[in-house]
From TrEMBL:
CDD domains: SDR_c
Protein name: Short-chain dehydrogenase/reductase SDR
Gene3D superfamilies referenced in this protein's UniProt entry, alphabetically: NAD(P)-binding Rossmann-like Domain (3.40.50.720)
Biological source species: Nitratireductor pacificus pht-3B
Lineage, highest ranks first: Bacteria, Pseudomonadati, Pseudomonadota, Alphaproteobacteria, Hyphomicrobiales
InterPro entries from the UniProt entry: KR_dom (IPR057326), NAD(P)-bd_dom_sf (IPR036291), Sc_DH/Rdtase_CS (IPR020904), SDR_fam (IPR002347)
Length: 249
């Protein structure tokens, strides 16, 4: 896919998990392309640092400190955007947690429930809150962060893999529901990236061998372009192409 930076002047983008990692750098990329960024995350310090960098570069941001287990809070975001702007042009559903790397039978119920609450239910609640706002845009774009774990289903990654498989299924269903509209919905497999989550999952790995999240964010940015035509697909960052995963007949 072409890596031409899209012109997002006058557009509004919502990014969850924006205080660090891929979400942080994608928020910066969106702002540099001209979008006003609504940055959502639990960590206030990370959001303030992001805001400083965006404003120093001449961009604009609105900060929303929020834990995505706060479902009523997610609903309020949708209402606030409607009242202030009346629409949303770009959604980046990036926030997620790993949980634990362990045999399924050893995972505590509270850990499994939290992974599903943030990664799946929180993402669904976010989709529900902003769906009418994205439909109101002349070129709504939804970017849903997934993982290769959704397809590899590696040993000990059960809760995380299951959550990302669910997220991809929701993204594809949503894309099919809106395929005749101006909304385009795609999932993203960012691949192994130099993030805190990756370090937690693979403590013996040399982070210097992995791409920096700023590199990954730059590759994802074109999915926010008003010119994008693809929908219902999975964008593989490492391969730099869209893939359609289909169940065997």
């Amino acid at each position: 896919m072409t890596q031409t930076k899209p012109d997002l002047q006058g557009r509004l983008a919502l990014v969850t998990g924006a205080s660090r990692g891929i979400g942080y750098f994608l928020a910066k990329e969106l702002a540099a392309a001209g979008a006003h960024v609504i940055a959502v995350a639990r960590t206030v310090g990370g959001l303030e640092e992001l805001d400083d960098e965006i404003r120093t570069a001449g961009g604009e941001a609105t900060l929303v400190p929020l834990d995505l287990t706060d479902m009523a809070g997610i609903d309020r975001i949708g209402g606030a955007i409607h009242e202030r702007w009346g629409k949303l042009d770009v959604l980046v559903a990036n926030a997620g947690i790993l949980g634990v790397i362990a045999p399924l039978g050893h995972v505590e119920a509270k850990v499994f429930d939290k992974v599903m609450a943030i990664n799946v239910t929180g993402t669904w609640r976010l989709i529900r809150a902003v769906d009418p706002l994205l439909r109101a845009s002349d070129a709504g774009r939804a970017i849903i962060l997934s993982s290769g774990a959704a397809h590899s289903a590696r040993a000990f990654w059960g809760p995380y893999a299951a959550s990302k498989a669910a997220v991809e299924a929701m993204a594809r269903s949503w894309a099919d529901e809106t395929k005749n509209m101006n909304l385009r919905v795609n999932a993203v497999n960012p691949g192994a990236t130099r993030t805190a989550m990756r370090a937690l999952a693979m403590p013996g790995e040399d982070p210097a061998t992995l791409p920096h999240p700023s590199e990954v964010a730059a590759r994802i940015l074109p999915l926010a372009s008003p010119a994008l035509t693809e929908t219902g697909l999975i964008f593989d960052v490492k391969q730099d192409r869209f893939t359609r995963y289909q169940m065997p007949a």
